[in-house]
Every structure is written in structure tokens, then in C-alpha cells.
Specification:
Helix content of chain A: 40-55%
CATH architecture of chain B: Orthogonal Bundle
Number of domains of chain B: 1
CATH superfamily of chain B: Winged helix-like DNA-binding domain superfamily/Winged helix DNA-binding domain
CATH class of chain B: Mainly Alpha
Helix content of chain B: 55-70%
Number of strands of chain A: 22
Shape of chain B: elongated
Strand content of chain B: 5-15%
Largest sheet of chain A: 6 strands, mixed, barrel
Distance between the termini of chain A: 47 Å
Number of strands of chain B: 2
Number of domains of chain A: 4
Oligomer: heterodimer
Strand order of the largest sheet of chain A: 3-4-9-6-8-7
Largest sheet of chain B: 2 strands, antiparallel
CATH topology of chain B: Arc Repressor Mutant, subunit A
Distance between the termini of chain B: 42 Å
Radius of gyration of chain B: 16 Å
Strand content of chain A: 15-25%
Chain lengths: 885, 113
């Protein structure tokens, strides 16, 4: 259509309106239709008259042949209106399309800008899409169970509000007495040693009531669930099925050797099946509760329940509170203060990852905002430099709205391209996060970049493009005709306006960077402090290995463990050997209430302490200093029971320094024997590196022998090198030993901070990107400002200003921006710190060192970024600047 | 919306397009062309021509602008767009095929008699 016009040299339909002075479109169309009908009738009459009709007859005939004029008029007008509407739409769309093509051509012409912009966006948007996918799939999305919102974990709350497991009697009372739960099922975690050929793998198992798996509403991938009353059958996880059972349907019916006993695999679960936060390898049926579990004080079970359809949460709460009150009333004093509570299953599965994931999402969102602000700043600069072009087009009759639209379209094109490139970034990002998150992400099997996320990302990008394109567009719309066309020397208000927009954008960027940097800085400081913490022992050259006697072992357990150091110490490369029931910095310690002979505590105020069984020389091998008394010897365990306590415990319980010889109990006072303190050793970070002020007790292994221990070996060379010979020597002692979890103490300690390092690394990366973007923005702004003030600088130099004064002039502006940005950022830091509080270690929210670091880093980077172009101002020659006019 | 049955309405569009293939023309010229070439066999209200023209202009099959006739009078001249040419080619093919098929079927009865 358009082409025809161009070639024919005819007037485009749209222009007609301008050519003919008409008051309103509706009237104009009506007039035209009227004119056309009149013209037709006129010609018809003339034709008929020419054929010999009389004028009167011809007129009547013409009207008759035409048909109802009234009806034709309204119909034609309707069509004409439709046509005009369509034409306007076409024009608008064509304008957009033209703008789009123009934008692409412009971007291609300046590939540097386009590439930087697209990459910045792709990274920003891609990282956001990746984290959003992870957050969505692991935290927000409904669990993969039918009506999963009805599934709850049943827990008991201690008197102080902390969470506890449930006791079997309470659970039975709940099952019998509730009115809101469809089903209540008990489960317990169990680690099981499995043999695959001559390899041992420690499997994570869950023992369940027969009703638990069916209650969840998912079917096995293959096979079936265990039936009530069945013994020695298991359902295996997708992972175990793939890694150990061949990954074929025939795995059902095969036998696993767990704890030395055969178990038949009856089912294989789908990959995304889990109802706990950790990895699970096998599910088997719970044995009937042991006698000791029939005690309300023994909180050793977990429970899952399904709420009845249509019952509101509040009613469930009331119901459980009522059951708890009844239990307390019926069994006073048995287990005072405990209350049953139902918590959403999803929160229990994903809770541990919530804070770090939300923190990272926030950080990555800030990075995206910074990137956008940066791009908007660049766009404003480009717009300003295109003022000449804009003004010429305005003078030639282009509408301001059209100019603004063009700039908007340019931005949207840029963001759209960025969004497309961000798709692979997002995919790689998600894969990387899933693979590298040290603790594993909740529901990792379900995480992926889906169409919804990508759509949202795209929509977000285009939206941001519109939002951040608005500033340059508005700026263009305000371009005045006078400036550039008249004389270039006075840029007038628009440039100052543009500078203001850019300055504001830059201040925003700097402020966000400060917030990010402070977050990263505080995390880094926490990590740093944590890694320089003295763990209380020497982890260097220490190899560790879990040793477990099989259930079939019928020899003398203490005798076996007495031989372990004898055999291992003889190995070349081994300096000394001992063993402990639990390694330090590894969590999961056993705990018991402490009693002191002759000094009873008030009810409920007895302190707790961890307990370990160790072989002689444990403290010496580990490098734990002996503070008082003596270490264990081979003879301990024969006579009166003995114990060694840590320094904190000794100081708190026996402040007079008379711990040695006192008697204590660890655990239920009624059944535990008195232990005589024979030594005090230095504090060790037993639970994890963050642990402080904990009470720790150690008993000789012989006194209460355990069948499985961690062997610790102080080596002469690299500890990992000693492990094969240690393993071989141990199997020489007992060929059926379970040996697993071998490694070095240093790598275990490193693993204990892996999650923190990971978060810090990501946060630090985001902060550095922010810093870099801020510096780029500052560079651009200053360079531009120097170019703009070329003439002013020339004049100043001609009037005798020195280089230093010029530099100060330019840098003064920079410093002001920096200061404002920094102060605003500090305000933002208050928010950041609040979000991070749970992740900090031994660092105050306003850590002076962190703040100084940020000031130095951000100040240094931005001032350098400003100084580079500002330096150029000094070499402006007065003559050249003035002569340029 | 229209009194005429759809086939006729579509057919009139085709006739109008066909008339305009000869070159740009105003409404009366289109009407005259169709009268001449159909020997008056096809009858319709003159207003139907304009309705067809307006409708097709809205659809982008024809375009129009004001011009001046030999007698120095202002008239709206219509011309076929490329889209219109394509439409004409496709639709006339379809109508011809339909007509031929119809003819064949109607002939069947006569042969057997």
C-alpha cells in the first residue's frame, strides 16, 4: 500500500485530513460520503439524459437504481469509520516497527554500547531468573503431594517454646483424642550401614508407620509400599535405585544388605519424593516402640499428619491444644509443659534454606536494579549526544511523542535482546546452584527453569525497559527547538536536566552498591572470624575414619578397640592413634542433664552437657590441652567410673578450681552412675565452629563401650595418604568391619563452613558486580561532564586557573555524588543488616572495619573512575577550547 | 447486515476488483464497467457498489484518494492493492471451480434423460 503511494507520488490517505480544512473527522467522513453519492447520482442522470431520458425521469431512475440513500449513507459511513480506525492502528504499528528497525540498526552501529548493555542485562536478568526459579521451586511451590497444604508435621513444644520431637504415648493420645486429623503417622530417622560388595555406604533411612507413605498420596515408581506386619522389606529412593540397583524395573525383588541383614526391595520412589529436608535413601517399617520409648519424657519420634478436608488451621491448633491439656491433666508431672503443635510440612522441609535464598534473591535483585540504572544513565547520555538529531527532526515536523516513543522502543528492544540472552544464563545459573549449593537445595530434584519463570523474566525485562527508558524518553520529549539549531555553544537547560537525571541515577546506584557491599562485607567478616576461630584442637595432619563392628561381632568390644591404636601406631607415617564416639565440629552430639554430687540444681535449671566416649590418649592425639588432672589410661573403666570435663564446665560448676575429685552425672539422674572428675581439658568447638560456652564431658571407652567409633590418626605426612594403609590394617583386625566416612579433619572443618562460604561467595560476587557497575557509571558521567564543560574549562584556564583547580572542580562534583550515595546507602544498610542478622557470626551490625572497607573500596573505585576522565580536563588547551567555536 | 446472500456479496466484491484491474476508477465507472461486461445480466443497487468499495477499502483490498475527473469534478478514485490482486486471483479461482463443479453436476441429470 505504502509502496504504491511512494511510486505513484500520490498523497497518502492519512495526509488528506491535513490537506482539507475540516473541523471534525466524523463530519469530514460524512461530507466525503455525501459528495461521493451526489457525484454518482449526477453522473447517472447525465448518462440517462444523454440516452434521451427527460431530466425528471432520469433523476427518478438514478435514485431508484441507487437504492435507499438513507441506508447506504449510514452503512458507508460505518465502513469509512472502521477504515479510519484501522488506518490509525496500522500507522501506529508501522511507527513502532520502524522504530524497532531503527533501534536495531542504531545498536548494531554502536556494538560496544549494545554488547555491554545486553551482557549487563543478560547477567542481571539471568541471575534473577535463576534465583527466582530456585526460590520458587524449592520454597514457594506446593509440595508434590496431592492436597499438600493439608500435610503437617506434628511436633512438641518445650516449656520454653523450643521445638522437640514427640513421645510415643503423647502421639497415641493424639491419635485417639483428636477431631481434626484424618491420619497421624509416626516416623524415625535411622542411619543404616549397607554393604554393596566389599564397599560400605552409610544410608539415610526413615522408619515409618505403615500408614505414612500411603497417606502422602504418591505412588511408587515401581513396586508397592510395605504392608503392615511385613518385616525386612524396604522402599528405596530414586537415587539409590539409580546408583546401586541398576536403575531398572527389575530392582524390585532384589535384596539389600542393611546392618548385616537382608532386606527385600518392594518399591522404588520417584525422584522428587521426599517429606524431609535431607536426603533419604530407604524407607522401612518402624518396629514396635521399645519399652524405653513408652515414656512421655522420651521425645524420640517424629510424626506426620493429614488434616481432614475442610478443617481450618485454627481449629487444628485448638484441637491439638485441647489434646495436650488433656494429656497434662491425665498424667500430671510425667512430662510437664509440653504442648503438641502442627506445622506446615513445607516449612519443615524448606525452612533451613529460606534465609540464605531470600538474601541472595534480594542481592541479585539489587544488582539488576543497579544494572538498569546504569543503562538508563548511558541512555540519557546517548540521548543528550543525539540532541542535534532530535532537534532537526522536531524542526522537520516530527512529533515529540514520536521521538519519545522511538527512544522507548530502543530501550525495549535492548531489554528484549537482553532477556533472550538471559535464558541460557538462567539455565546455567540454576544448574550451577543445584550442583554447588553445599547443603543441597530443598527439593533439588524439582528445580528447573520453566516457561512461567522465563515468561515472567521476559515481561520483567520489557517492563524495566519501559520504566528505565522513560527517563531518556521524557528528556527527549522536552528537547527544545532553540538550542542546537541556533548555536551549539549554549546547551541550555536540557543538558543540565540530563546531568541531573544521570546524577540521580548514579546516586541511586551508589546507594544500592553500599547496601550490597555492606552485606557482603559483614558476611565476609563473619566467615573470616569463623575460620580464624581456634577450634580447641589441632586439625592439621589428622586423618579420621568411622569404624563400626558388625552386629554379628561376638568378641570383646573393648579388647578390639584396645588393639586399634596398637596396630595403627605401628604403621609407617602414623604418629599416634586414638578414637572417639563423635568427632568435633561435626554436630549431632549426644546430650544429657548434668547433676553434681552434693549440690542439686533447682528443678528445670540443670545445665546440659555433651558426652563422648574416647580411647586413651584422645586429648594428646587431638592436641586438646590438659588443664588440670590427668588423661585416661588403659586402666580407667576397671574401678570407679571416671569422667573428664571441659574448662568452661569446670569454671562454671566448680569456680573454686576444685573440680578434680568431684562427682557428677550426665543423663537421667535415676539411672546414671556417679562419675568422678579426673581431668579438665580445654574447650573444643564440638557441635560446630560457632559453638561457645558449651559443657562437654568425656568418658573412657572401656567404661561404657560402643561398637562404632571414629578413629583419629595423627600422621607424619599428608593425612589422606595414610588412609589406605589404615583401612587395610583395620580390616586385618576384623574383616567384616564397616568402614566409611573417611577423610581428613581439615576437610571436615572446611565442609562445616562450606554453606557460609558459598553464600558469602555469591553475595561478594554480586557486590563486586555492583561496584564495577557503579564505577562504570561514574566514569561515564564524569567523562561526559568533562566533554560538556570543555569550553567552560578552556575559559577558566584562559583566565588563569591551574590544572589542580580544574581537577578539583570536576572531582568536587564526583565527591558530592559519592557522599550522598554513601549516606543513602548507609540507610539501606540498616535493612540489609536486619535481613542478614541470622547469618552473621561475632560481627556487630555496624562493624567499623566493614564500613571502612566499603568506604575505601567504593570511594577508591568511583574516585578512580572519575579521575581518569577528569585528568583529561587538565590538558584542555585554552586555545583549542575557545577556537572550537 | 446485508440483504444479498453471501455468495453474491463476495461475488460483487470480485466483480468490483475485476473492474478496477483495468486501472483506477471512481464508483460510477466501476458500476458502468460491470453493466457493460455483464450485458446487464447482473443487477444490483448502485449503492451496493459503494458498499463493496468501502468494505474492501477497510480490509485493505483497495485504496482510494480524491482526484479530478475529465470534467474537472472531484471524485474518489479507487485502485486495487497488492493484497486486493491476490484476493481476486484466489477468490476467482475458487468461484470458477465452484461454478464448474456446479455445472458438471447439473449436466449429469440432463445426460441420463
Amino acid at each position: 500500500m505504502k509502496r504504491d503511494h511512494r511510486h505513484g507520488g500520490e498523497i497518502r490517505p492519512g495526509v488528506r485530513r491535513v490537506a482539507r480544512p475540516v473541523p471534525r473527522e466524523g463530519d469530514a467522513l460524512a461530507g466525503q460520503t455525501e459528495e461521493e453519492i451526489a457525484h454518482h447520482l449526477q453522473l447517472r442522470i447525465e448518462e440517462l439524459v444523454a440516452r434521451g431520458w427527460s431530466h425528471e425521469e432520469a433523476r427518478e431512475e438514478a435514485l431508484r437504481r441507487f437504492g435507499s440513500i438513507q441506508r447506504a449513507r449510514s452503512r458507508l459511513l460505518r465502513e469509512a469509520r472502521g477504515r479510519e480506525r484501522r488506518m490509525r492502528m496500522t500507522g501506529w504499528w508501522e511507527g513502532i516497527r520502524l522504530d524497532g528497525r531503527l533501534a536495531i540498526r542504531r545498536l548494531v552501529k554502536r556494538p560496544g554500547f549494545a554488547v555491554i548493555a545486553v551482557l549487563t542485562l543478560a547477567l542481571g536478568v539471568g541471575a534473577n531468573a535463576a534465583l527466582f526459579s530456585v526460590v520458587h521451586d524449592s520454597l514457594l511451590r506446593a509440595l508434590p503431594f496431592p492436597r499438600s497444604d493439608r500435610l503437617v508435621r506434628v511436633v512438641e513444644l518445650n516449656a520454653d517454646g523450643s521445638r522437640n520431637n514427640v513421645s510415643v504415648p503423647n502421639l497415641e493420645d493424639l491419635r485417639a483424642g483428636n477431631h481434626t486429623l484424618e491420619e497421624v503417622a509416626r516416623f524415625q530417622f535411622a542411619r543404616v550401614r549397607a554393604r554393596f560388595g566389599d564397599e560400605t555406604e552409610l544410608l539415610q533411612g526413615i522408619l515409618v508407620d505403615p500408614g505414612l507413605l500411603p497417606m502422602l498420596g504418591r505412588s511408587p515408581l515401581y513396586g508397592r509400599f510395605p504392608r503392615a506386619g511385613e518385616d525386612h522389606v524396604v522402599v528405596v529412593s530414586h537415587r539409590l535405585w539409580r546408583s546401586r540397583l541398576g536403575g531398572e524395573a527389575d530392582a524390585v525383588g532384589r535384596t539389600l544388605h542393611l546392618e548385616g541383614e537382608p532386606y527385600v526391595v518392594v518399591g522404588v520412589m520417584p525422584a522428587d519424593f521426599t517429606f524431609t529436608s535431607g536426603r533419604t535413601d530407604v524407607w522401612a517399617l518402624l518396629p514396635p516402640p521399645a519399652a524405653y520409648e513408652q515414656n512421655r519424657r522420651v521425645h524420640a519420634s517424629e510424626a506426620l499428619a493429614r488434616i481432614r478436608e475442610g478443617v481450618p488451621d485454627a481449629q487444628v491448633r485448638e484441637d491439638l491444644a485441647r489434646v495436650s491439656a488433656n494429656v497434662q491433666a491425665d498424667h500430671p508431672g510425667e512430662d510437664p509443659g509440653h504442648v503438641l503443635e502442627a506445622r506446615p510440612l513445607r516449612d519443615m522441609i524448606t525452612g533451613y534454606a529460606r534465609t540464605p535464598l531470600l538474601m541472595l534473591s534480594g542481592a541479585v535483585l539489587l544488582v539488576l536494579l543497579i544494572a538498569c540504572a546504569n543503562l538508563a544513565g548511558l541512555q540519557v547520555a546517548r540521548t543528550t549526544s543525539r540532541e542535534g538529531e532530535m532537534e532537526v527532526r522536531l524542526a522537520l515536523g516530527a512529533r515529540r511523542s514520536a521521538l519519545a516513543r522511538q527512544l522507548l522502543v530502543e530501550n525495549v528492544v535492548l531489554f528484549a535482546v537482553g532477556a533472550v540472552v538471559s535464558v541460557p544464563v538462567a539455565r546455567v545459573g540454576v544448574a550451577w546452584l543445584v550442583a554447588h549449593a553445599p547443603d543441597g537445595l530443598p527439593r533439588a530434584a524439582e528445580i528447573g527453569v520453566d516457561a512461567g519463570t522465563l515468561g515472567l523474566t521476559l515481561a520483567c525485562s520489557v517492563g524495566l525497559g519501559l520504566l528505565f527508558g522513560l527517563a531518556p524518553a521524557l528528556h527527549a520529549a522536552r528537547t527544545r527547538l532553540s538550542g542546537t539549531l541556533g548555536t551549539r555553544s549554549d546547551a541550555g537547560g536540557t543538558r543540565r536536566g540530563a546531568q541531573r537525571i544521570r546524577s540521580a541515577l548514579l546516586v541511586g546506584q551508589l546507594a544500592l552498591s553500599v547496601a550490597l557491599l555492606s552485606g557482603a562485607g559483614l558476611l565476609l567478616r563473619s566467615l573470616w572470624k569463623l575460620q580464624s576461630v581456634d577450634p580447641g584442637f589441632r586439625p592439621q595432619r589428622l586423618a579420621v575414619l568411622h569404624v563400626g563392628l558388625p552386629n554379628t561381632f561376638d568378641g570383646d568390644v573393648p579388647a578390639f578397640y584396645r588393639r586399634v591404636p596398637e596396630v595403627l601406631d605401628a604403621l609407617p607415617g602414623v604418629e599416634a592413634t586414638s578414637a572417639t564416639s563423635a568427632l568435633p565440629v561435626s554436630g549431632g552430639d549426644g546430650r544429657g542433664e548434668v547433676s553434681v554430687d552434693g549440690r542439686p540444681f533447682d528443678p528445670g535449671s540443670a545445665p546440659g552437657a555433651t558426652y563422648r566416649r574416647v580411647l586413651p590418649d584422645y586429648f594428646q592425639v587431638m592436641g586438646i590441652p590438659l588443664v588440670q588432672g590427668r588423661e585416661f589410661t588403659d586402666r580407667d573403666g576397671d574401678g570407679d567410673p571416671v569422667v573428664i570435663i571441659n574448662a568452661t564446665m569446670a569454671e562454671r560448676l566448680f569456680p573454686d578450681g576444685d573440680a578434680i575429685g568431684r562427682r557428677i552425672k550426665v543423663g537421667p539422674a535415676a539411672t546414671e552412675p556417679w562419675l568422678t572428675v579426673v581431668g579438665v581439658v580445654g574447650d573444643v568447638r564440638n557441635e560446630d565452629l560457632e559453638e561457645v560456652d558449651a559443657f562437654a564431658t568425656y568418658e573412657p571407652h572401656r567404661q561404657r563401650p560402643w561398637t562404632s567409633m571414629y578413629v583419629v590418626v595423627r600422621t607424619r605426612g599428608r593425612p589422606a595418604d595414610a588412609l589406605p594403609s589404615v583401612r587395610k590394617a583395620l580390616l586385618g583386625l576384623e574383616p567384616d568391619l564397616y568402614l566409611y566416612d573417611a577423610g581428613t579433619m581439615e576437610s571436615r572443618m572446611s565442609a562445616s563452613t562450606a554453606s557460609r562460604r558459598f553464600n558469602t561467595l555469591l553475595m561478594g560476587t554480586f557486590a563486586l558486580v555492583a561496584l564495577l557497575l557503579g564505577a562504570v557509571g561514574m566514569y561515564g558521567l564524569t567523562a561526559y561532564s568533562v566533554a560538556q564543560r570543555h569550553r567552560e574549562i578552556g575559559v577558566r584556564m584562559a583566565l588563569g586557573a591551574t590544572n589542580g583547580e580544574i581537577l578539583r572542580l570536576i572531582m568536587g562534583g564526583t565527591a558530592r555524588l559519592l557522599l550522598v550515595g554513601f549516606l543513602l546507602g548507609l540507610a539501606g544498610t540498616v535493612v540489609t543488616v536486619r535481613l542478614l542478622r541470622g547469618l552473621l557470626y561475632d560481627v556487630s551490625s555496624f562493624d567499623p572495619l566493614t564500613l571502612v572497607g566499603i568506604v575505601t573500596l567504593l570511594g577508591g573505585a568511583t574516585l578512580l573512575a572519575a579521575w581518569l576522565p577528569a585528568r583529561r580536563a587538565r590538558v584542555v588547551q585554552a586555545v583549542s577550547a575557545l577556537g572550537a567555536e | 447486515m446485508d440483504d444479498s446472500i453471501p455468495v453474491v456479496k463476495g461475488t460483487l466484491d470480485l466483480l468490483v476488483l475485476k473492474a478496477l484491474m483495468a486501472g483506477p476508477a471512481h464508483g460510477f465507472e466501476v458500476a458502468s464497467w460491470i453493466e457493460t461486461h455483464s450485458d446487464g445480466a447482473v443487477t444490483f443497487d448502485d449503492s451496493a457498489i459503494y458498499h463493496a468499495l468501502y468494505r474492501m477499502e477497510k480490509r485493505g483490498l483497495v485504496e482510494a484518494e480524491w482526484g479530478v475527473t475529465e470534467n474537472n469534478r472531484r471524485a474518489r478514485y479507487y485502485r486495487v492493492t497488492r493484497q486486493g490482486r491476490d484476493h481476486l486471483a484466489e477468490e476467482s479461482e475458487r468461484v470458477l471451480r465452484f461454478a464448474r463443479t456446479l455445472a458438471t453436476i447439473l449436466e449429469v441429470g440432463r445426460e441420463t434423460r
